[in-house]
Write a structure and sequence with these properties.
153 residues; Mannitol-specific EII, Chain A; 44% helix; 6-stranded mixed sheet
């Protein structure tokens, strides 16, 4: 079965202009948004899992992208969320630049292979400069979804 990012990213999990100015606040805002939309069962457990993962190694992958992620039973299924920060947020990226595009990935503990596949698939998609530009310029959540649908393999 081919994993499609667009099948796990819901319109209601997209924040076009995140208010947070720093990494932990951005993660908190994304998780709170997901809890409010009933996409996450246990926000506190999810934040704890994300913080633990973030302490191991930064999820700022460079080129203005951060992919905070964690396996946790705070979610029922693999799920993506998206946020954009016009000013950028310091995710301690490997290139030292702020992250403007943030994809958050959550997966239940028992779905390790799906989780790893999702991370790899998203990383491949975001390596494409034109895709990053389109995501930065998108006007609304529907455009974000369309960009992903058109560009995922």
């Amino acid at each position: 079965m081919e994993l499609k990012i667009s099948e796990y990213l819901k319109l209601e999990a997209i924040i076009m202009d995140i208010k947070a100015k720093e990494k932990i606040a951005a993660i908190d805002e994304l998780v709170e948004h997901m809890v409010a939309k009933k996409l996450v069962r246990d926000g506190k457990a999810f934040i704890k899992a994300l913080a633990k993962r973030e302490n191991l190694e930064s999820t700022g992958i460079g080129d203005g992208i951060a992919i905070p992620h964690a396996r946790t039973d705070a979610v029922q299924d693999l799920i993506f969320a998206f946020a954009r920060s016009p000013e950028g947020i310091d995710f301690s990226s490997i290139d030292g630049k702020p992250s403007h595009i943030i994809f958050l990935i959550a997966s239940p503990e028992g779905k390790k292979s799906e989780y790893i596949m999702a991370l790899a698939k998203l990383s491949r998609l975001l390596r494409k400069h034109p895709v990053r530009e389109l995501l930065r310029d998108a006007k609304n959540p529907k455009e974000i979804m369309e960009i992903i649908r058109k560009n995922e393999e």
